[in-house]
Specification:
The protein is an alpha/beta fold. Helix content is 28%, strand content 15%. A six-stranded mixed beta sheet has the order 2-3-1-4-5-6.
Length: 157
């Protein structure tokens, strides 16, 4: 129960976040199925992009203590439906990725997408550069430690 489940559209940065938080080398690849790491669960973007897969996300969330909705501000496509977080019976946070590649208006649009989905708090990160990762890891460590699994090494890089 002490893992974080990452949900977002394809290319939003979920796999990179999983790798960074699990202190692995960052290797860019397309996630084809639900993949469990020591402290996180990565899901294919298609699970969010196609409502027929929402049940798979709900089932995957059973092994998580926190659900993280991930939004890519460099994409014009807003994939996370309003109120989406309410389908999960656990804390749901938001993460805006790629903030060093996006403008202020793009970041704010992604932040608003996550708030409309009822994800709070919202973290702003740039995973490859490590921006915002320490605050995210600290939050996850605090909220997952009582569930039995924390982020390895405190998740700080």
């Amino acid at each position: 129960m002490g893992k974080v489940l990452f949900i977002g559209k394809s290319g939003s940065g979920k796999t990179t976040l999983c790798q960074k938080l699990n202190e692995q080398d960052i290797r860019y690849r397309k996630t084809q199925m639900v993949e469990a790491y020591q402290a996180s669960i990565d899901t294919p973007g298609e699970y969010l992009e196609n409502p027929r897969f929402y049940k798979a996300l709900i089932v995957s969330a059973a092994d998580a203590g926190v659900v993280a909705l991930v939004s890519d501000p460099t994409s014009a496509y807003l994939a996370i439906p309003p109120g989406f977080a309410k389908i999960f019976q656990k804390p749901v946070i938001g993460i805006v990725t790629k903030i060093l590649e996006a403008g202020v208006a793009q970041i704010e649009r992604s932040r608003q997408e996550l708030l409309r989905a009822k994800a709070e708090p919202v973290f702003l990160v740039d995973t490859p550069e490590g921006v915002g990762i320490e605050a995210l890891a600290a939050y996850l460590e605090e909220h997952l430690k009582e569930k039995g699994t924390g982020v390895p090494g405190g998740g700080r890089t």
